Amino acid sequence: MAITASDVAAFVACLSAGAAREEQTLNAADARLGDGDTGSMLRRVFAAMATANAAGAATVSEAGKRLAAAAMKETGSSLGTLVATGAMTFAREAREIEGAGRDPEPADLPRIVAAMRDAISMRGKAETGDKTILDSLYAIAAALGGGEVSREVAAQAAQQALAAFRDRPCRIGRARMFPERSIGADDPGMLAAALLLA
């Protein structure tokens, strides 16, 4: 079964609703390690993406381009830029699939998530093990590639990554300057991935 532009828009609408619901939780998590605005920033970015009329796009790749443009226009933070990078990469991967004469399918998602992970790694100059949302994406790509492709599987992988990294120090970003404070604290990006996918 093909993925449609409407499917993409519906998924982003769910992320937007989750970001609004979890705004203060994410802000509180970020306040332990950073500026305390991760929740507010994600609420704004996903709200902008949810109103980008992705459902009206003729193709999935065009839907991704609309989402990326909306995210870039709204964000002013490093995490927001990574969201936009992920959306741009999603659009590029979808365009390659469409160029082969077919629509993206759920079976393509492990490859697409892995490409998003790699692009975000390059843009954010982070590596696996740094305790960032990149570690969540590594876990999600692996889980989707190893079995059922579903939101539930992705959510479980994100939750497991969050738990696995909780007692590790942050190795990048502002939190790396106070590694002892980051031990036992959830990385806000990883927490966002777990909460919003759930």
User: Structural class given helices, strands, pairing?
Assistant: mainly alpha
- Which H/E pattern describes the elements? HHHHHHHHHH
Q: Quick one: overall form?
A: globular
Low-confidence stretches: none
Report the mean per-residue pLDDT as an integer: 93
Number of helices: 10
Task: Please report which band the strand proportion falls in: under 5%, 5-15%, 15-25%, 25-35%, 35-45% or over 45%.
Answer: under 5%
In whole angstroms, how far apart are the ends? 23 Å
Can you give the helix content as a percent range? 55-70%
What gyration radius follows from the Cα positions, in whole Å? 16 Å
Report the biggest beta sheet as strand number plus sense, adding barrel if it closes.
Answer: none
> What's the count of strands?
0
Keywords:
mainly alpha; single chain; 198 residues; 10 helices
If you had to describe this structure to a student in words, what would you say it looks like?
- By secondary structure, the protein is mostly helical.
- It contains ten helices and no strands.
- The chain has helices at residues 5-21, 23-33, 38-50, 60-74, 78-99, 109-124, 133-145, 151-165, 179-182, 188-197.
- Helix 8 (151-165) packs antiparallel against helix 10.
- The longest helix has 22 residues, at 78-99.
- 49% of the residues are buried.
- The model has no long low-confidence stretch (mean pLDDT 93).
Which SSEs are present, and which pair or pack?
Layout: H1 5-21, H2 23-33, H3 38-50, H4 60-74, H5 78-99, H6 109-124, H7 133-145, H8 151-165, H9 179-182, H10 188-197
Helix pairs in contact: 1-3, 1-4, 1-10, 2-3, 2-10, 3-4, 4-5, 5-6, 6-7, 7-8, 7-10, 8-10
